[in-house]
Predict the 3D structure of the following.
Amino acid sequence: MELSFADKIIDNSTASKNSIVKRNFLIDKDKSTKVTIIYSDLTVNKNQINLDILNPLMHHFDSNFKDNTDPYEFLLMTVLPMANAYIETSFSNLVSELKCGKTLLFIEENEKAIVFDTTNFTYRAIQSPTITSSIAAAKEDISESLEQSMSMLKRHIKDPSLVIDSLTIGRRSKTKLNICYLKDIANETVVSTITEKLHSVDIDNVQSLGGVQQLIENYSASFFPQSFITDSFESIVCKIYEGKVVLFMEGSPYALSAPAIFVEFFQNLDDYNQRTLVASFARLLRFFALIVVLTLPSLYIILTKFNPEFLLDKYIRAIVSARSGIPLTPFLEMFVMEFIVELLREGGIRLPSKVGQTLSIVSGIIIGDAAIQSNIISPPALFVIGISVVCTFLIPNYQMALSIRLIKFPLLILSNLFGAFGFFFGMYLMIFMLFNLDSYGIDYLEFFKPDMKDTFIRNKIPSLKRRPKILKLKDKYRERGTKND
């Protein structure tokens, strides 16, 4: 026997038919019109179905359909009190809507249906951001619910030029993703590039924005991230106003903004809530910390192994005395301790937060003290490692901090093999890579005179009248009447 249109949709929507409920009943004054509803028992609000679909149709619809009237439109206009309901004729769209928790209503054997939004997924409440830490910023993180995130976005951004484009990626996962930007500010080339890359993604399962980030980046093997991930809603709103393109994904507790530039990863929301001098000092500290993390361990190897003549005699004597009886070379001291620090840091992340923090601190103290007491590591080497570890905490973006921590190891190896030449060669390669990298057509690292007001320092807020020139935006100015700046 040939399957009905509703049965065909059920067959194409799931391999487990036990989760799909199919209900037949009769309506109109003479009870002569057969109606079928289908829905997934795991994803709908049954009370809403009972109150807004079954009850009006079975108990309050006591008239017959008029001639030459579409019964679907007639029910929507006169009987069914649901706001989010519409008629759909596409077979593939109906299958997709059923998978997403919608309820479908069929009249007789017509090959179309009314789609009702009866979804009832459970999400956590809005909490404080955990990835992006700040003191004075709003304490709202991004929800895993795409609808809730869009509601919050509309509440924060009331600009009529806000564009929210929706698409679905993943052949099997059917993951919903929204592209958000301000039409009269964002760079059209960046928007089209990101949109084309997303549409070209052909993979069966997409579960995180981190995976999407790697699928659409031009240089996925690069040390440096070309898009910015954050879970702070205030941060995302600021980036949209700056002309960035932001991606929200169903089930993801953070959002992704692009294009990203190098200096952006060393800026924090608190920079714009603090006084100019305080914010500038904090930002300079971060760039200083970056230099220390990259250079200090390598310089220790160079000065102790290759060029001790650059040190004063009193420092040489102190280092020689401290290294007396140490079996490891300066390189092995640095490499082993850096590796142990990474083990402790990774272990602390994977454990519950309170246990992980305590374990990392106690383990670091115990291992460091034991290494010195057993004459495996010298105190100067441990001092250098300690400063380097502390400086990594000053980098506000977690992805960039990971990249910088990883770059330390090649620099250590080059410094051990070739001394100062190897170190400067490694730094040259890193800088060369930064200046030749681009993020969706925008230079990753380039300096413009107008942008220097908000790069290494943060100038007075009233003077920040121009948006970053490096982004090549449509609307270049935040403040009207100041286009000579």
